[in-house]
Write a structure and sequence with these properties.
The chain is mostly helical and 198 residues long. It folds into two domains: 1-32; 33-196, Four Helix Bundle (Hemerythrin (Met), subunit A) (Up-down Bundle). It has five helices and no strands.
Length: 198
């Protein structure tokens, strides 16, 4: 595809997609979203592709027999193991996505630790990918005034500052915070994170 064709394609995406969404909203009786809301939602959907790609590939890269790894030298006393990092990250995604959709947090998310019923690496990976799917539903609802937003006790955003946009951004920031820790754990085990490979 040459540059002119790429430019036309991108222009069509930025002009026609919001236009189609607006037309579909009018036909269904939903109030049309302003362009700023559509841009915010689209930007978060882009990040929702990037963040899980990095996080899930890092989780997959750690061998199952190393999921119990936690650093012991230096200032690492009491830190989560690699496997617990993955479950915590996922549980937080589920909790914040539920708040963004006005729902109760999943009972098995616990106090951000994640469910005990996810003992194997494969189950943890399924739980992790499902958490990003839940976050995707919350992002897709940005601008939907028919869905209430709740505050979450795990979030510093309380009262009116707990918007759907803010809660989903918080979840993405939190995910990348733990991704950074996962990268350290991988490198301490002689593994290069997939996103850092040439």
């Amino acid at each position: 595809m040459n540059r002119l064709t790429q430019a036309r394609w991108l222009l069509a995406c930025f002009v026609l997609v919001p236009l189609r969404v607006s037309i579909a909203q009018r036909a269904s009786g939903i109030a049309p979203l302003d362009s700023s809301t559509l841009k915010d939602r689209h930007a978060l959907q882009v990040f929702l592709k990037v963040v899980p790609d990095n996080v899930v590939s890092a989780a997959e890269a750690m061998p199952a027999d190393k999921d119990g790894f936690a650093p012991t030298e230096g200032e690492f006393h009491g830190v989560r193991t690699f496997g617990r990092q993955v479950k915590h990250l996922a549980a937080t995604n589920y909790i914040l996505a539920a708040a963004a959709l006005g729902q109760d947090p999943p009972a098995d998310a616990g106090d951000e630790a994640g469910p005990d019923a996810v003992p194997t690496k494969d189950e943890a990976l399924t739980y992790l990918t499902g958490s990003f799917t839940a976050l995707g539903r919350a992002i897709a609802a940005i601008g939907d005034r028919g869905i209430a937003v709740r505050t979450s006790p795990i979030s510093p955003l309380q009262g009116g500052s707990a918007t759907r946009l803010a809660l989903t951004v918080e979840a993405l920031i939190h995910s990348f915070d733990h991704y950074g820790q996962m990268v350290v754990y991988l490198r301490m085990n002689g593994l290069v994170p997939p996103a850092s490979r040439p």
